[in-house]
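Usage

Read records sequentially. Each one opens with the input sequence:
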Amino acid sequence: MGRTYFVEEAIGQYLSDLSTKSKPYVTGLLIGQCSQQRDYVLRAVRTPPKEEQKGDSISPSTLASVDEEWITTHASQVSRMLPGGLLVLGVFIIATPELSKDSQNALRKLIFSVEKSLTKRRLWKPTEEEVSDRAALQICSATKKVVCRTYDVHDPKSSAKPADWKYQSALSASWVALGCTVNVNIHIPLLSTSPNHDLEKNTRNGLNRWSKQIEDSVFLINGQVKDDDTELLEGQKKLRGNAQSSTQLSDVRVLTQLSQGSSPRSTATVQVCSGSINLRGAVKCRAYVHNNKPRVREAVQALKRDIINTLGDRCEILFEDLIINEGPHKKNFEREYHVLPQRLFVPIAGSSVMLSDYKFGDEAAGEIQERFGEMLDQTVQAEDIHIAEEFNTDFRKEGSQR
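and closes with the structure output:
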């Protein structure tokens, strides 16, 4: 039996509007949440046009011209804007009847490319029981016929399986939110054998080690340690889904363990270092889970991944900013101090779920609004941008004095 996708009703209108554009095809991403019982689609987002295509009425007429690299880059950018619990769970193509034969092959190729790109960026590993099916949605622009299939991205030889696509109103109006503040103090030694310009690689290696600490942490939900298999909302009154969007917010505390592993004995390693990287500050983290009897395991996993993602994404954004402003070949610096971008949240209309983004101190609200318009095809009012953090998280690189 195939998977069932429950889809926010507004997506139907969004896809219908895209299908009326006078283009042979339109591609885009599906954003939502996977669970063992069912999958949820909260947003569909068209692929933004390239700079040279803006205002250009002439569009490529065959699916052979689908820009795989541009679509995977878009998926990577969008994934940074998703809080814990949400992911890019599929790809869609709206195409003319003449192109419908080639649509499924194009979708299959895109699904595997997008997943490969997103996997490369992750600092965490999926669990064995995790859902690995991704949606391939094909829509005929003439007949409006919708065909949904899935592919198992863990199996490169996977063939298409049929899936149900069901619209539902107020799908995420009363999802459960979990929030926490994590104090970060990460010390990453730079080995003498490692050149300074490998700063990004060294940082990633250090974050990989730190992410294992987060994975092994104890999570207190509203002050309690709960069994993984219990229902998250056990003992709480469930909010009605047909009411105005409302958030059931759980406060979470993260307790990191001092020692790794069960053995009290450990081996110390002495290494010659030329400097160090220090990441210090407090980061705001947030995750959302569906309200269909979610388990504690699902909620904690979503929040763990948000903690790991938010720090990794901020470092990535900082390095990209440095390359743009200072060039890719800057080497041999002794000391550096940078402020990592702050996190912000933006609501989705009719939903209790909020999307995320990051801003540097000198970025104006207009730049954030432009980014949401380009990446998520969403109009954002300046007053709807909620800065989550009052204090900055900083990135320091120190070289040894010689």
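Summary fields computed downstream for this record:
- The first strand starts at residue 4 and ends at 8.
- The chain is about 25% helix and 30% strand.
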